[in-house]
Structure formats: C-alpha cells, structure tokens
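ARCHIVE CARD
CATEGORY: sequence design from structure
SOURCE FIELD: tokenized fold
FIELD CONTENT:
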C-alpha cells in the first residue's frame, strides 16, 4: 500500500466529519455543501481503498480504519494550526497579546500602560484578562503573567522572563489610619478578607500577621471577597482594613488613596511569573514589553523600604 498522502482538503473534510460524526455539521463548519464534503470523503476512501464511515439511516459511525485515522488527523491539523499561528505572530510584530489575571490586569497593568504606549506607539497591546490557563499556540498568546507557588516548575518549552514578588500588609483609607494607630487596635477594626490566595497550599491570613507580632487572634469577622481587586476597592472606600497584596494596592498607596502604616509584611510562598515561548523573548515587541515590565516591577520595590518581611508559614 502506497504511503502517498491524499489531498489536504479531503483529510480536512474527514477530520471535521469524524469530530462531529455528522456530514451536515462538518459541512457547515467548513462552509461547503454536504454534497461537496461527501465527495471529498469518498475520494479519501478511494485513496485508502476502504470505507472510513458507516452510513446509517440518520447518522454516521467511524469504521475501524476511520477510528485509526481520526485522532492522528485531528492532532495533525492542530499542529498545523499552531505552526501557522506561530508564523503569523513572528511576522506580525506590531501586535502583542498578553494574558494575566483580571485583578492584576486592572490594578497593576492598566494604570501603567500609558507609559508603555507613549514610548512604543508602534506596538498594539491586546489583553486576555482571565484566570483560565491559555495556550500560547492555540490562543495566540505572546506573554503570560501567572500567579502561583514559588516552587512551581514551568513547562520546558517556556522561558521565564521575570519574577514579580508579592507580599501583603494591612492597608486602609487614610482616615481609618488615624483611628487604628496600633497593632492591637486592629483587633477592633472592621476587617476585609481577601480570599484570592486561598488556593495556595500555604496561604496567608490575618492570623499569620497577628502571630508575627506575638498576638493571638480572636475570631475576626468582616466581609469576604474572592477577588483581590474588589477587596482593595472596598478598603479604598473606607469600608475596613484589608491585608492587601502589594501588586494590587501599590498604585493606591503611591497616590495616597490607601496607606500601609505598619512595618510588618508577610511574604506568601507564591509570586508572579512572566512567561513566553523560548526564543520569543528576543523579538523586538516582546523584548520591549518585558524590559518595561521589569522596570515597573523594580519601582514597586520602593514600598519594601523599612519593612520587616516575614515568610508566611515560616
């Protein structure tokens, strides 16, 4: 039997029909008529010398040969699609797509982007703000900013371009800072709970922060937020005191909308990792964004000055 491959259009028709188990649905996906799709599959079966589908009354089933071909055909077209998208990204240096969590995008990236845009008007930035793990190949992503455990290993085909350290400390509206001037007084404050890091094996909590000062923590009550930026917003409004994440509260601290009056901060066993496919870090657009990101992260380090940094759970 010859190993000469059949026409790509025939294989594409088969892959779609095998995935849908419907000639009608496959034809709709490929924007051809069912008759044209049926003709392509028939030509493929003639090339193979055996049927790939059993034509039943109102449906189709894969034959043994069809079952053998289907997963390989699907994988092959996925690989081709990924390669085509990668080639387009290399050529399309004027567009850069970044994925990051919604909170980080809103509170860290968005307030700073005017600086990058002013210095790089030739680069169009696109953001996919989601906690879902997007795929560099299939989702057309150039750079991923992901928060997770510090000891987490990255896939071997990815380059870690940068690590942005996270830490937490009590943050509040300046008016509340006049009321809660001592660590002990915080035990009487209205507490805002940021539950965004509960997914970590060794998370951080108010109990950890009070424990770092040798204080036993009673049962604290307050409002819980699953999104860290919502907790920061509540603290800015004066609703209470939050154990705020520096990555999301730094802009408000710099602008004076929040204050962090106590010198003790907790370091979670987690950080932000900035990832891109290996080799992509040298492309002009990617390199420009990574360099800018590194400079901005460095400026955030000034908030650490004079603070006592305590490893959470340590």
């Amino acid at each position: 039997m010859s190993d000469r491959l059949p026409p790509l259009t025939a294989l594409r028709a088969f892959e779609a029909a095998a995935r849908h188990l419907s000639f009608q649905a496959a034809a709709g996906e490929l924007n051809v008529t069912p008759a044209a799709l049926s003709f392509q599959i028939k030509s493929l079966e003639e090339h193979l010398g055996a049927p790939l589908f059993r034509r039943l009354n109102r449906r189709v089933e894969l034959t043994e040969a069809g079952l053998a071909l289907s997963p390989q055909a699907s994988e092959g077209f996925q690989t081709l699609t990924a390669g085509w998208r990668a080639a387009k990204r290399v050529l399309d240096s004027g567009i850069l797509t970044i994925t990051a969590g919604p909170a980080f995008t809103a509170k860290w990236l968005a307030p700073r982007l005017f600086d990058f845009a002013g210095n790089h008007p030739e680069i169009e930035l696109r953001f996919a703000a989601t906690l879902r793990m997007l795929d560099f190949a299939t989702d057309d992503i150039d750079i991923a900013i992901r928060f997770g455990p510090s000891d987490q290993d990255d896939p071997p085909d990815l380059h870690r371009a940068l690590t942005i350290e996270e830490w937490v400390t009590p943050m509040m509206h300046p008016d509340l800072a006049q009321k809660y001037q001592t660590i002990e007084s915080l035990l009487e404050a209205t507490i805002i709970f940021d539950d965004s890091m509960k997914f970590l094996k060794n998370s951080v909590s108010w109990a950890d922060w009070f424990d770092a000062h040798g204080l036993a923590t009673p049962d604290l009550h307050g409002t819980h937020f699953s999104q860290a930026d919502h907790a920061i917003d509540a603290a800015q409004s004066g609703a209470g005191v939050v154990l705020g994440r520096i990555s999301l509260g730094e802009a408000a601290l710099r602008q004076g909308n929040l204050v962090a009056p106590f010198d003790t901060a907790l370091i979670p066993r987690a950080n932000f990792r900035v990832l891109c496919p290996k080799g992509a870090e040298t492309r002009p657009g990617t390199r420009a964004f990574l360099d800018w990101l590194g400079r901005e992260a460095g400026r955030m380090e000034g908030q650490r000055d004079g603070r006592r940094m305590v490893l959470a759970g340590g």
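CARD ANNOTATION: The two ends are 66 Å apart (CA to CA). The longest strand covers residues 158-165.
SHELF: design records, drawer C
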